[in-house]
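Customer escalation, tier 2.

The customer says the design service returned an amino acid string that "doesn't look like it belongs to this structure." They asked us to rerun it and document both sides in this ticket. The original structure tokens are below, unchanged.
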């Protein structure tokens, strides 16, 4: 097949980053069309890369231009649903950054649109499934290395966050990645969520509950504890330890040279989240391009996975307010997505 002609909707930080990787790092794709609510920002992104993509006034015009074989939705969250539905309506495969939509109903409308066409169009940007360390964990768990998983302990820590970061964003922006990757890792479904607030860090602004502990329980009885601590000061730190009947397995730390200096022996930590999964972003977008070129549809995280993440995040946010254990009810998984949990990346 010729190069996959890709249209990009939203040229903010991650949009420009994906444009750069498609142009400079990956193979099989070319950016032919770009749009953003700020047309000058779209033009600037195209000029910075020195590519010949056309600028369109909005998502619908870009999708209907006849210039694109697939679409990348990298605008801000509330705009995702409309662009994704328009792409499906036009029969175009679409990679959508998380969240798939900002409400469970919005995600469900996208699931329904795919089910109505009996075809997958959507891949959601849950890049951790493409991270080497998480893949090693999954391979070991699927191979029975630790026996049946019983518990997972994990942590998502940022050195600091912007003043605009709010307590619910700890779930919808931060934990959302754990929500997706953990259910994929153990092949189980969430049943309930409960959020607790330990003693508040003096480094967190007044409006922000930080740290938080989230407890998720699965249908199979696995209990997950996830610490979210977004003013931890010391670095960007992702931890995941799965405890099974026969042993435990832990996500490897990012490797960095061991040093000895000034009476200290140690390893440097990453400070910026952008660096932690930089390779995984390359692999996920390459996977999208390859599968669309080969099969006409993506194979990665599905619209149903986007729906699961949103329903689970909603339960966590409810629990932030109620302090209670909140039920997670997904309804019946459509046939279109059945059996995909193990096959997909
Ligand atoms: P950002 O820098 O604010 O970029 C969003 C861009 O979309 C901005 O240029 C914004 O324009 C534009 N935009 C807003 N509404 C639009 C619309 N209706 N149509 C077209 N463009 C529109 O944010 P970001 O960090 O790139 O994040 C974008 C999305 O990616 C978010 O959903 C975020 O959660 C997700 N994300 C995922 C990861 C990951 O690890 N997978 C990492 C980062 C971000 P204005 O600036 O003019 O409003």
């Amino acid at each position: 097949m010729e190069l996959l002609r890709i249209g990009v909707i939203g040229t903010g930080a991650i949009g420009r980053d994906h444009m750069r990787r498609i142009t400079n790092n990956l193979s099989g794709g070319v950016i032919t069309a770009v749009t953003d609510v700020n047309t000058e920002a779209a033009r600037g992104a195209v000029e910075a890369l020195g590519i010949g993509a056309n600028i369109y006034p909005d998502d619908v015009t870009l999708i209907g231009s006849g210039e694109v074989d697939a679409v990348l939705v990298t605008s801000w969250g509330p705009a995702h649903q409309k662009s994704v539905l328009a792409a499906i309506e036009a029969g175009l495969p679409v990679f959508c950054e998380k969240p798939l939509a900002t409400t469970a109903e919005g995600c469900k409308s996208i699931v329904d649109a795919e089910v109505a066409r009996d075809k997958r169009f959507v891949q959601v940007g849950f890049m951790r499934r493409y991270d080497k360390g998480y893949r090693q964990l999954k391979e070991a768990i699927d191979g029975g290395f630790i026996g049946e998983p019983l518990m997972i302990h994990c942590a998502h820590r940022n050195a600091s966050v912007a003043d605009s970061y709010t307590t619910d964003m700890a779930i919808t922006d931060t934990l959302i990645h754990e929500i997706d990757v953990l259910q994929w890792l153990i092949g189980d479904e969430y049943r309930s969520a409960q959020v607790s607030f330990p003693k508040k860090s003096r480094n967190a602004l007044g409006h922000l509950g930080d740290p938080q502990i989230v407890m998720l329980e699965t249908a199979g009885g696995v209990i997950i504890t996830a610490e979210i601590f977004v003013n931890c000061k010391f670095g960007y730190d992702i931890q995941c330890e799965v405890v099974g009947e026969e042993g435990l397995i832990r996500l490897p730390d990012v490797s960095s040279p061991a040093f000895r200096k000034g009476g200290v022996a140690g390893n440097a930590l990453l400070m910026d989240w952008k660096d932690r999964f930089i390779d995984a972003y390359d692999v996920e977008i390459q996977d999208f391009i390859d599968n669309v070129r080969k099969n006409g549809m993506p194979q990665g995280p599905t619209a149903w996975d986007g729906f699961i993440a949103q329903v689970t995040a909603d339960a966590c946010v409810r629990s932030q307010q109620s302090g209670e254990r909140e039920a997670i009810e997904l309804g019946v998984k459509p046939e279109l997505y059945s059996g995909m949990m193990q096959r997909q990346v």
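Tier 2 assessment: The sequence is consistent with the input. The chain has two domains: 4-128+279-308+333-343, 132-271. Residues 9-15, 35-38, 41, 59, 74-77, 79, 97-98, 125, 127 surround NAP (CB under 6 Å). Sent an explanation to the customer and offered a walkthrough call.
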